Amino acid sequence: MTPMAETVTPSGTTTATGHLLASLDPLLREWLPRQRWFAGKGRPVTGFTPVAVTELLPPDGRIGLYHLLLRVHQPPVLGAPPHPGDCYQLLIGVREALPPRLAPALIGHVTDGPLAGRTVYEALYDSRPAEVLLEALRTRARVGGLRFERDAEQEIREGLVARLMTAEQSNSSIVYGDTFILKLLRRVVPGVNPDLEIPLALAREGCPRVPAPTAWLHADVDAESYVLAVLQPFVNGASDGWELALRELAKGEDFVAEARALGRATAEVHTALARALPTVTLGQAQLRSLVDGMLERLEAAVQAVPVLRPYEQGLRSAFTALDDLAAEGRTWTAQRIHGDLHLGQCLRSPSGQWSLIDFEGEPSRPLAERRMPQPLVRDIAGMLRSFDYAAHSASPPAPEWAHRCRAAYCSGYAEVAGRDPRTDPVMLRAYETDKAVYEVVYEARHRPDWLPVPLSAIHRLATSDPSDPT
Ligand SMILES: Nc1ncnc2c1ncn2[C@@H]1O[C@H](COP(=O)(O)OP(=O)(O)O)[C@@H](O)[C@H]1O
Ligand SMILES: O=P(O)(O)O[C@H]1O[C@H](CO)[C@@H](O[C@H]2O[C@H](CO)[C@@H](O)[C@H](O)[C@H]2O)[C@H](O)[C@H]1O
Question: How far apart are CA 289 and CA 305, in angstroms?
Fold first, then answer.
C-alpha cells in the first residue's frame, strides 16, 4: 500500500490502521472485483490508497469494525485519460472466526500484523455492526471525519434489528426493523449527492411521492465532504414497478392503470422539483452541447459494443434532429429531474401509492453532469424504455402491452403537468435513443444475457418513423 492520504481514528493513532491496511491489501484485491457494486470490472486491481480509515469498534473486542474510504487503482479504460482511481466505501468486520450464517460475508483470513489469525468480512451482513451505524445516526455521532446527521423532526427508535438486503444493487442497503432503510453508497465522490439533495428538497416542498430522508452520513476529508449513506422510512410490503409489471405480463394482464398512476406520480415529482430547485432555459448553444454529449456517448458505445455499428447512422439522426429544431429558434425548459428513472425505481405501497426512489442519476456519469438541470423528457424517456424492457423480457415479447403502457404513462403525466410529453417527439426520441445506447453498454458490462432487450429498441429507434414517440 502507498502511504495514507489521511487516517482518522478516535484515538488519533495511525500505526494500527497502517497494519490493518497492509494485511487487507491482498485480500481486497481478490474480493473487491467480485462485488456486484464494483464498477471497475474487467480491469485488475493494482493497489489502494486510503482516503480515510475510521475505527468504529476496536478490534480487541468480540467484533471489530472499520470504516474505510479507499481509492482503488486500476489500469485506465482503453483509450481513456489516466484516472486517479475510484473511491469506495467499505465496512470491514474483524472476528476470531465467522459463524456459519456469516459465511457469504467472508473477505479472508489475515496472515500477518496485529490482526494475524483473525477473519475479516463484509460487516454489513452482521447485525451488530449494522446496528452501530443506526445508533450513530440516532445520536448524531462524530467519529474521526465521519459526521452522522439526522432530521430532528423524525424519531428513530432504539434497538431496531438490522438485516442486509440481498438484492443485486449498485449500492448496499440495510433494513432496520421494517421501519427504515439505510442506503450505503459504494463508489463515492466528494460534493453534493443528488440521492440526498433531491429527496431533502422534495421533503421541504411537502411532496409525498419520495420518502423523506431521516438521517445521513457525511465524511469530511481534506476540506472535501462526501455523502456516504442516507436513511429513509422503509415502505413496508412495497413491490417495485418492475416486479409488478413482469407479474402482470406473465398473467397476460394489462398494466395501463398503474402506468397512468406512474405518469401522475412522475409529474407530481417534477412539479415539486421545479418549485424547489432552479429552472433554466436551454438555447441553441446548450442544445448543441447536449447533442454533442449524446453523439459522444454513442461513439464510445459503438467502440465498446461493436454490435451497435450497423445502427450508428440511424441513431445519430435521432440526435441531430434536435439541432434542426434549435436552428429554428426552439428553446426548452430544463430543471432537476430523477436522472435514471425506470420501473425498478418506483415502489407501490400495499395501499397502492407510488413513490420514486434512487435519485443518484446514472452511476457512470460525472456528478456535475448528474446535478445539472435537464429537460423533463429525459425521465419520461427512461420510463418509456422501461415499459419496453419489461415487454421484451417477456416470452413471447409483448410490444402491444408496452405500447399501451407508454401511452397511458404519457396521459397520466399530462393530467397532472398540463403538458403531454408526446407533444415533444424529437426530444423524446433523442433521449430514448440515448438511454437505449446506455443500456446496451450497461448490459454488455453487467448482464450480457440481457443484451437483446435494449438491442431490439436500438433496431426500432434506428429504423422507424421519427415522428412516432410511442
Ligand atoms: N424507502 C424504501 N422502502 C422500501 N424499499 C426500498 C426503499 N428504498 C429502496 N428500497 C429497496 O431497495 C432497493 C435498492 O434501492 P436503490 O435506492 O434503488 O439502490 P441502488 O442505487 O443500489 O440500486 C430498491 O429496488 C427497493 O427494492
Ligand atoms: O442500479 P440502478 O437502479 O441505479 O440502475 C442500473 O441498473 C438497472 C438494472 O437493474 C438498469 O435498468 C435497466 O434494466 C431494468 C430492469 O432490470 C429496466 O427496468 C430499465 O428500464 C433498464 O434501463 C439501469 O439502466 C442502470 O442504470
Answer: 24
